[in-house]
Design brief:
By secondary structure, the protein is an alpha+beta fold. It has one domain (4-140): Roll (CBS-domain). The protein has 6 helices and 5 strands. It has helices spanning 4-11, 24-34, 53-61, 72-75, 89-99, 118-140; strands at 17-18, 38-43, 46-52, 103-108, 111-117. The strands form 2 sheets. Strands 1-2-3 form a 3-stranded mixed sheet. Strands 4-5 form a two-stranded antiparallel ribbon. Helix 2 (24-34) links the parallel strand 1 (17-18) and strand 2 (38-43). Helix 5 packs across helix 6 (118-140).
Length: 145
């Protein structure tokens, strides 16, 4: 079973941040430029929230707020759940399912060292299943003695 750290080693440890004082429009520009679905909201490298595509849709667009004048701090998700690098990937998936979130910061000693998306975990699970199927197929075909 793989850990969150192993997934980060494969995908990369980039963490994209934005200031709570930035506008939602700036956050959307940043997410689009980086091709990510969420940004960590931070003050002095300390996480204070997260803003995701879902936050923009529900708290800005559906609320008919103006993205160019609405601040990230006004609409971000404040309860940020983090996992440790040593967390098993399956446990990280369970956290995301339970919390109904699509992005999960990875923190070590109070510092965010990576960010996982549900897509990262689905890709990991798919690779794990492929490896298991290959091993079982080889076993059934007599490749293992």
């Amino acid at each position: 079973m793989g850990s969150v750290d192993e997934i980060l080693n494969r995908k990369g440890r980039d963490v994209y941040t934005i200031s709570p004082e930035a506008t939602v429009f700036e956050a959307v520009q940043s997410m689009c430029a980086r091709r990510v679905g969420a940004l960590l909201v931070s003050i002095d490298a300390s996480p204070s929230g997260i803003i995701s595509e879902r936050d923009v849709l529900t708290r800005v667009i559906l609320a008919r707020r103006e993205p160019a004048t609405t601040l990230v701090a006004e609409v971000m998700t404040r309860e940020v759940v983090c996992v440790e690098p040593s967390t098993p990937a399956r446990q990280a998936m369970a956290v995301m399912t339970e919390r109904r979130c699509r992005h999960l910061p990875v923190a070590h000693d109070g510092r965010v060292v990576g960010m996982l998306s549900i897509g990262d975990l689905v890709h990991w699970a798919s690779r794990e299943q492929e490896a298991e199927i290959k091993m079982l197929t080889e076993y059934v075909q007599g490749a293992y003695s």
